[in-house]
Amino acid sequence: MRSRAAMSFVVLFVFAAVVSSAELVDRIVAIIDRDVVMLSEAERAEALLKIRGADPGSLADVVERMIESHLIEKEVARFTDEPVPEDRVQEALAKVRARFGNEEAYRAALAVRGIPEREVSIELERQLEVSRYLERRFRALTYVSDEEIDQYFEQKVLPGLDAERGPTVEEIDQIRRILEEQKFSDRVDRWIEGLKERAGIRRYVW
Question: What is the Cα–Cα distance from 83 to 121, expressed in whole angstroms?
C-alpha cells in the first residue's frame, strides 16, 4: 500500500509540474473587455512586426499595440465591410519581401518564425483596412491655416536661414504637409485614447 501511495504521489507531483510548466509557456498578458490576449499571441504579433520591418519594442509595447489594434478593428468592423483591393495587399506584400533582398532570405525568415505567408498577407490587409478607415474619418479634419504655416516658418525654419525672408511656395507646401500629418496623428491618438478609456482593459505585463 505504501508503494502504491508513493507512486500516486509521484504521478501527482509530475502532473502538477507539467501543468505548471504549461502555464509558464503560455499565460494571459491582457484582457480587453471579455477578450483574452495570450503570451503566445503577443509573441506571434512580435514576429509579424519584425517581418514587416517594424521595431516591436518590449513585450509591453507589443501588448499595447495589440490592445489598440483590437479596439480599432472593432470600430472599423462596425462601420465598413468593404474589402481592401487585392492589388493593394499584394503591393504591400511585395514591399515586405523586398526588405529581405531575395526570395530565399524572405522564405527563411518566415520559416524561422514559423509564420506562413498567408498570415503576413492577412495582417497587411488588416493594416490597410485600418489605414483607409482612419484616412476617411480624420484626414478631412486636418485643416492648416496660413497663420499656422507662417508661425511654423518663423519658429522652425527662419532661425536656420542666413537672412530674413518669407517662405517659398515649396516651403509652404512642405510645411502644410508636416502640420497636416501632425494634426492627423494627434486626432488619431486622442481617438485611440478615448477607445481605451471606455474599454475595460487589464494588463498583466509591464
Answer: 13
Superfamily of domain 2-203: Porin chaperone SurA, peptide-binding domain (1.10.4030.10)
Kindly write down the DSSP assignment for every residue of 144-173, as one continuous string.
Answer: --HHHHHHHIIIIIGGGSSS--PPPHHHHH
The rounded distance, in Å, linking the Cα atoms of 35 and 149 is 44
Closest CA to 134 of 69, 42, 57: 69
Question: What would the grid cell of residue 91 be?
Answer: 503591393
Cα–chain center distance at 88: 19
Reported as a single tens digit per residue, the pLDDT across 88-124 is 999 999 999 999 999 999 999 999 999 999 999 999 9
User: Cα separation of 147 and 153, whole Å?
Assistant: 10
Question: How far is C-alpha 128 from the geometric centre of its chain's CA atoms?
Answer: 12
Q: How far apart are CA 16 and CA 200, in angstroms?
A: 33
pTM of the model: 0.79
Q: Compute the C-alpha angle 182/95/65, nearest 5°.
A: 50
